[in-house]
Amino acid sequence: VVINATGPFSDAIRTMDQQDATPIIKPAAGTHIILPSHFSPHGTGLAILETTDGRAMFYLPWQGRTLIGTTDYQVKIEKWPTAPQSDVDFILSEVNRYLEQTVSPATEKDVLAAWVGIRPLATGTQSVTGTAATEATGDADPDDAGATAKVSREHLILNSPSGLVTISGGKWTSYRHMAEDTVDAAVLQAGLPNLPKPSATLINLVGCDGPANMPAKKITQANAAPFHKNTVSILSNYLVDALTAEKLTESYGSRAADVCDLANVDKTLRQKICHQHPWIMAQIVYACRFEHARTVADVLSRRTRLCQVDVLAAHNATPKIVKRMGDELGWDSERRQKEVVRTEEFLNSMGLQMRLKNTAEARKSSRPSVFAYHHGGAE
Where does residue 18 fall: left (phi above 0), alpha (psi -120 to 50 degrees), or beta otherwise? Predict the structure, then answer.
């Protein structure tokens, strides 16, 4: 039995198994952009329930920045999709309807990162209301913004005679249900004994000390709050600043101390990956040793969120991350160079080229004004 959990690439794997397999994926793209923190007050977001084209958009403080998205339209599947300029322009135009234009209008120069994800919507599934998602099937126009609006976000499992079990569709909020259904299907396909499920009772996430799904008595006891016991313990016992302590607690829970212990052994691991952001070098080593991280892109996008909140900072930090991971994992010079190339390709999909262009233009335009400030007159 082989489980095919490859998202938008599910149909490509299925055709390797059965050349005449009927496609089940309707790929839908969604673009997000990141703006600086001053665009959203701490703890305050905005739901734009109807944009000019009738969709919904969210405007939220996230990771110390402002996250805005998303668009929704049918696309062709590709490995490294990039956020279309039209999407970035659309999102900016929508949020500017709510921003005070004389104080803080949002422009492309404010965009710190922009990326597009492809949702692997499964056609022919049932929605939670019991309506089959058949209305948006067929040859929909990829440029039609509403082409995926009626496709269900429910998941679908298919078994092939060869033993390929495909899980497709679904959404982040139902990932545990999807995983359980997939394992059930694989057990049945393989003819394995029906053993008691370990998930029959609630299981804690790694790093959570209390009983599963226990509500916090007070909001300040929520994970990563300033007075969370793990945050206080880290601040009391390790040389990290308050923001880094909160970020470590948010990411690792009670295991944040294990990350800090690495920095106690090697003091260079106390350094920030990037000075403007809270993530530290110890997280790279921890990810390699205990979380099976094997690429810089993995560290930048999942073990930290640096590439999402500031793609230029991620680009500038790439050499030091390559060196640290290379030393940790025993990479030779050829492997390190491949990782540099692969990481740049990935960061281009996060809006790097747009950021480099805008940064270069900003520096160019600032030179005459700096010269005039120091010397008077034009350069």
Answer: beta
